[in-house]
Amino acid sequence: MVIIPNNNNNKKRGNNMKKLILTMMLAIAMVFSTQAQERGDWYVGTGDVANIAWTEWAVSPTVGYGVMDNLMVGVSVAQADSTVDMDYDFHARYFMNGYFAYVATSGLSTDGISYGVGKMFTLWNNNLYVDPKIVYNSGEKTTNLTLGFGLKF
Predict the structure, then answer these.
(1) Cα separation of 100 and 87, whole Å?
(2) Cα–Cα dist 77/90, whole Å
(3) CA within 20 to 30 Å of 114's CA: 16, 29, 52, 132, which one?
(4) What's this model's pTM, rounded to 2 decimal places?
(5) Does residue 70 contact residue 95 with C-beta atoms inside 8 Å?
């Protein structure tokens, strides 16, 4: 006797799993919220943790300040290893309708300006943030998906 598996049950399970994953993603998205960025807000975070190969993982400490409503300026510090000098990156974000436009430069040089767009998600009384963004680097002519997180107060 040969037993043939019933593919209809597997399809139903697959559809149920898709619905479960979609429901979980929707619930997580509802937990994360966006909030207006106001003058006087401070941001302390990582800058970017996703733009580096996983074998060379590094974190760039970042500090930002809301200089006026919907405009934040900041600085990041990065050092690949102890044999090279520290790099200072200056950046600004302009927030509108829950999204932000991003511009950054390495040091005071205008040779490799980065431009991007992203969205800041806040959690836990709007004190913890995650900010995925798409960034184009004009010097390297590359486009990257980056991810930062930190505290806002």
Answers:
(1) 24
(2) 9
(3) 29
(4) 0.68
(5) yes
How much is the pLDDT for 13? 55
Instruction: Dig out the tokens for 153 from the structure.
Output: 């107060």
- Which amino acid, one-letter code, is at 118? G
Fold of 42-152: Porin (2.40.160)
Residue 41 contacts residue 153 (beta carbons within 8 Å): yes
Domain residues of the chain, as ranges?
42-152
d(CA 18, CA 25): 11
Instruction: Give the Cα separation of 29 and 43 in Å (integer).
Output: 22
Q: Residue 140 in contact with residue 40, Cβ under 8 Å? A: no
Least Cα distance to 144 among 51, 67, 82 occurs for 51
Query: What residue type is 45 in one-letter code?
Result: G
Strands 128-137 and 62-68, bridge-based pairing = unpaired
Least confident of 55-64, 74-83, 100-109: 55-64
Confidence of residue 55 (pLDDT cuts 50, 70, 90): low
Burial grade of 118 (CB within 10 A; 0-12, 13-18, 19 or more): buried
